[in-house]
Amino acid sequence: MSAWIGLGANLGDRLATLRTALSAMGALPGTRVQGVSSLYGSAPVDAGGPDYLNAVAQVQTTLAPHALLAQLQAIEQAAGRERPYRNAPRTLDLDILLYGDEVIDTPTLTVPHPRLHERAFALCPLAELAPDRVPAHQLAAVAPQRIDRVQGADWAIQATRQLS
């Protein structure tokens, strides 16, 4: 199954953390990274703290959605993720944005991500990887949000080389 994972970090060595997370995602059982967006900088949404670095990765996985979520949360924990309060600054944030065409609504997982359509930092990199998955009206709605393309997809070469 194809899944699209949002990656974000706004504490510590953000780029190194995202590269490590991408490598760890590719090492998950039955999972292969198929593509990675450019790297984007964005201001925190509904929160304070430093700017985020964001990207989206497309993975092919045999993991069921909740198993994938558990693995992604383990990667966050390994990166020092703490959850002191909602929207707190974070060393790493990994979100399942889409899981194939599935619609999931459980207490622990909602897919498509419930705020995906409100966030340029997720929609812009997702549109880069999967333009057919992001309607033009959603991109237009988030156009006023500040988001800057910081680096092309080559930021991930170091991490994905380790997977080959």
Describe this structure in words.
It contains 5 helices and 8 strands. It has helices at residues 14-26, 65-78, 120-129, 136-142, 157-161, and strands at residues 2-9, 31-36, 39-42, 52-61, 93-99, 104-105, 110-111, 147-151. The protein starts with a strand and ends with a helix. Strands 1, 2, 3, 4, 5 and 8 form a 6-stranded antiparallel β-sheet that branches. A two-stranded antiparallel ribbon has the order 6-7. Helix content is 30%, strand content 27%. With 164 residues, it is an alpha+beta fold.
Which structural traits does this protein have?
164 residues, 6-stranded antiparallel sheet, two-stranded antiparallel sheet
Secondary structure tally: strands: 8
Instruction: Tell me the span between the first and last alpha carbons.
Output: 20 Å
Radius of gyration: 14 Å
**Low-confidence segments:** none
Helix/sheet category? alpha+beta
The number of helices is: 5
What is the residue-averaged pLDDT?
A: 91
